[in-house]
Amino acid sequence: MTYLLLHEAARSQLSSGVTVLLIPSLYSLIFLLGLPSNGLALWVLATRTEKLTSTIFLMNLAAADLLLISVLPLKIFYYFLGNNWPFGEGLCRVTTAFFYGNMYCSVLLLTCISVDRYLAVVHPFFSRSFRTPTFAAWTCAAVWLCAAGITLPLTLQQQSYPLYRADRS
Description:
Layout: H1 8-14, H2 17-47, H3 53-80, H4 89-122, H5 124-127, H6 133-156
Helix pairs in contact: 2-3, 3-4, 3-6, 4-6
């Protein structure tokens, strides 16, 4: 088994109030606000609005946020338990991949939204032919595939390591 040897400063940071109280408290707030608001946004965009390119991009952005929110409870427990991961290596890999996958997806989708808005405002006639919901859906599929490809290595390599002499204060 591989153990990590941490310097005292790093070990102290892992047990600091910021790490074991502030971060999980903020994650809890994000979970409590993000789950209903992103769920409602996704539901409204999917059922109550016209399917425009911006709607497609925003639906995917809400879905990416829900992906992150789905693993936040595990990260909250991890921090509250003093940076101890009790859920096994598989869930650690999935949680890490979802966490970073959300970041990549969100950045790429916000870029798509920005480009879409730019084209709609600056080149409205030129972009009309390809700014379609179908094109937006294919673009979102490419974004998801790209994010999955980037995070795939995180699921293939070990993500949790026991600390050497973890019982020491």
